[in-house]
Design brief:
about 120 residues; about 40% helix; globular; 5-stranded parallel sheet; 5 helices; Rossmann fold; alpha/beta
Length: about 120
């Protein structure tokens, strides 16, 4: 089973994505965003795929992905970033593998995650 980590601050979105991804056969790990620094948590349990919101309560998603890309342990981690603002270019240049503009269709996320976790 493929594991997907979620770093999303909207509780409704978290519940929706957890349900959807589990139905699609993914194991879902929801990150505690009360943590001021997600990197130590991610280093402790390196994700295969991470769905990362750009605007988190205590951190900026682009800062997180930039820091991840500087560490060898995250070389294979696929990061899909999401935002309500069209920040696709900025996210990709920060090191994200993909970007979704909110609101996005759940199928878009599923297709991207399958592309990165299958084969």
């Amino acid at each position: 089973m493929k594991r997907v980590f979620l770093a999303e601050d909207d509780p409704t979105m978290v519940t929706l994505l957890e349900t959807l991804l589990r139905l699609e056969g993914f194991e879902v790990v929801t990150l505690d965003l009360a943590t001021n620094d997600l990197l130590p948590v991610l280093r402790n349990d390196v994700p295969e795929a991470l769905v990362l919101d750009v605007n988190l309560p205590s951190q900026n998603g682009m800062d997180i992905v930039r820091a991840m890309r500087e560490e060898d342990i995250f070389k294979k981690t696929r990061v899909v970033m999401a935002s309500g603002m069209n920040l696709g270019d900025e996210c990709l240049s920060s090191g994200a593998d993909d970007f979704l503009l909110k609101p996005y269709m759940p199928d878009e996320l599923i297709n991207i995650l399958r592309k990165y976790t299958e084969g």
